[in-house]
Design goal:
The structure is a single chain. Helix content is about 45%, strand content about 15%. α6 runs parallel beside α12 (about 305-330). Strands 1, 2, 3, 4, 5 and 6 form a 6-stranded antiparallel β-sheet that branches. The protein contains 13 helices and 11 strands. The chain has helices at about 1-5, 10-15, 65-85, 90-95, 135-150, 170-180, 190-200, 205-210, 255-265, 280-295, 300-305, 305-330, 340-370, and strands at about 20-30, 35-45, 45-55, 95-100, 105-110, 115-120, 125, 220, 230-235, 240, 250. β2 and β3 (about 45-55) form a beta hairpin. By secondary structure, the protein is α+β, with helices and mostly antiparallel strands. It has 2 domains: about 1-120, 2-Layer Sandwich (Phosphorylase Kinase, domain 1); about 135-370, Alpha-Beta Complex (Aminoglycoside 3'-phosphotransferase, Chain: A, domain 2). Bound molecules: adenosine-5'-diphosphate (ADP), 2-acetamido-2-deoxy-1-O-phosphono-alpha-D-glucopyranose and magnesium ion. The site of 2-acetamido-2-deoxy-1-O-phosphono-alpha-D-glucopyranose has 12 residues, from loops.
């Protein structure tokens, strides 16, 4: 851990942000697969204040300024809307960007690394795996409210921070190419997983088609609705604040609901090596549907009718991405041990199977929730 802390000179980076505070200490925080996050303790007039400092992975998010332009717009709009609705704790309910001293919403250091800072939300926690049904309800409600807050975002379409992020067909094509190239000679060992994906080629086109035909509308969506991207109040367990806004861009509601199903209903952790522990927990799914539909009350009948498909597809897509990364030599998702991306892929595929086995019952439940 400490080698990571000292990898960057956090104190110097901190001083480039307009915090009106003195750096005290900084330590790595969180378990994300993409960016590096630090919790910074500072002193403002002798009073302890906290910030979240993040090094953005620009290998993945290639246009940092475009990304931060999205996040600034979202953050301003969300805070203004919350306040207009009477919230007195908007700074705990929406991420607040701390600008750099040059006025930009980011700082690029001497080594070309891209940094940004947020107000740290205190008195909250995140769940890597849902522990109680109401956590799922709260997370889904928070993502639904987030989508509702952004429904009238002014200023035109958001920038696409990763092109074709949830274009499942394009993910499938990249996967096929990785199998063909087999640069690490790992394909033979994962034949079963490859065949599982190949057998589902057709379903990869379904959502893409529904969007292209206009049956499913484009919306401003979060696109990375993992449960641990909602900060939950420690005392009340209320879903307070949606974070990790890097992938907020034009998308569709099914991406967001689908990725909640993927991350919340799994009875095991995302990288559990024993896939016999993996299944889609029905009661968690139902809590997600209640939480999300209660908040996202604007969904069309076509969106509601395809929510389970969204879950199946986002889970399959994520499995495809982990498998592709494993085949390509683990260059995208951070790993902490050999074979971790393969284990992640296997849990996702096992979850796909479990969702498929229960699909009719799950959709029936969605249909029973009042609009
Ligand atoms: P990643 O893209 O790596 O997942 P996140 O933006 O989700 O990065 O941040 C990683 C973790 O840091 C989160 O899971 C959360 O625990 C914590 N975190 C991020 N932003 C804040 C914040 N503003 N206040 C409190 N904790 C935060
Ligand atoms: C990554 O950044 P994080 O850990 O919240 C990934 C998501 C995947 C997820 C799988 C930008 O999310 O798309 O669903 O891992 N984010 C990006 O756990 O690729
Ligand atoms: Mg995250």
């Amino acid at each position: 851990m400490s080698s990571i802390v000292h990898k960057h000179d956090l104190a110097t980076i901190f001083r480039h942000f307009d915090t009106r505070a003195d750096y005290v200490s900084g330590a790595p925080f969180g378990t994300g697969h993409i960016n590096d996050t630090y919790r910074i303790v500072a002193s403002q007039g002798g009073h302890k204040v906290l910030f979240t400092l993040q090094h953005v992975n620009t290998r993945i998010f290639k246009d940092g300024p475009a990304l931060m332009s999205n996040i600034t717009r979202i953050s301003r709009h969300a805070v203004a809307r919350l306040r207009a609705e009477g919230a007195t704790d908007a700074s705990r309910r929406a991420l607040q960007v701390v600008p750099a001293i040059d006025g930009k919403p980011y700082h690029v250091d001497g080594a070309g690394m891209f940094w940004r800072m947020y107000v740290f939300v205190d008195g909250v926690r995140t769940y890597g795996k849902v522990e109680q049904v109401r956590h799922a309800f709260e997370a889904a409600r928070a993502f639904g409210l987030f989508q509702r807050l952004l429904a009238d975002l002014p200023g035109g379409r958001l920038n696409e921070t990763i092109v074709n992020f949830h274009h499942t067909r394009s993910r499938f094509d990249t996967f096929q190419q990785a199998v063909r190239q087999d640069v690490c000679q790992r394909a033979a060992q994962v034949r079963r997983e490859i065949d599982f994906v190949l057998a589902r080629e057709k379903v990869c086109d379904t959502l893409v088609r529904l969007m292209a035909s206009g049956e499913i509308p484009e919306r401003v969506t979060h696109n990375d609705t993992k449960v641990n991207n909602v900060l939950m109040d420690i005392e009340s367990d209320e879903g307070m604040c949606v974070i990790d806004l890097d992938t907020c861009m034009p998308g569709c509601a099914l991406y967001d609901f689908g990725d909640m199903v993927r991350s919340a209903t799994n009875s095991a952790t995302e990288d559990e090596p024993d896939t016999s522990k993996v299944h889609c927990q029905r009661e968690i799914f139902e809590a997600l549907a209640r939480g999300y539909l209660g908040a996202a009350d604007f969904l069309t009948p076509a969106e509601r009718a395809n929510l389970v498909l969204g879950g199946r597809l986002m889970t399959l897509e994520c499995g495809i991405r982990f498998l592709t990364d494993y085949l390509q030599g683990d260059t995208y998702f951070k790993i902490h041990r050999e074979g971790q991306n393969l284990d992640r892929c296997r849990t996702q595929l096992a979850l796909v199977k479990s969702i498929e086995d229960q699909a009719d019952a799950l959709q029936k439940f969605v249909d029973s929730v009042k609009a």
